[in-house]
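W.,

You were right to be curious about this one. When I first looked at the sequence I had no strong expectations either way, so I just let the prediction run and decided to look at it fresh. Below is the sequence, 170 residues in total, followed by the output.
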Amino acid sequence: MSSFHDLESDLWVPAPIDKVWALFSDPKNLVALTPESYHAEVEILDANHRLLIRVSPFGKSLPVRFKWISQLKDFQPEGARRSFRDIQVEGPFAHWEHEHIFEEGEASFEGGRSGSPALKPNEKGAWIRDRVQYAVPFGPIGEMAHRLGLKRQIASLFAYRREALRRLFP
């Protein structure tokens, strides 16, 4: 079994939590948060919040298309702190669990992790927090691929997402 890896991302946006939640609670919006080169497609499979996601993470350089089925669960859609989790049911990872957390809050410089260089302290908005735990398949070979480039690719995907969110919530 591969070891587990963690990724965390915090981003503050100058938008009300209702507007941020509306974006994330519609799975079709995942396409807007994914690089165009991935040619992402999202299909809602059923009323149980299962999604079929198809992506080409290597673009045209390596014509491989991954099928990913994700289960959305543990919805907390109300209040000043909202969240849900998406868990890979079938797909390219040995394990993938992504907790999406949205919190009303003011801009701050605490921890230096906001990724928002133009923060104005005490400005109202929302924090978008991602907590991902994943494991790669194929044991030691998968771990080597993780070290050689997969880890950077996952980080760049979340960096793209942060930039897309900054454009959507200027």
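Here's what jumped out at me. Residues 4-26+70-168 form a domain with the Alpha-D-Glucose-1,6-Bisphosphate; Chain A, domain 4 fold (CATH 3.30.530.20). And, maybe more interesting for your project: The beta strands are 4-13, 41-44, 50-55, 66-76, 81-90, 95-106, 124-135.

Coffee later to discuss?

I.
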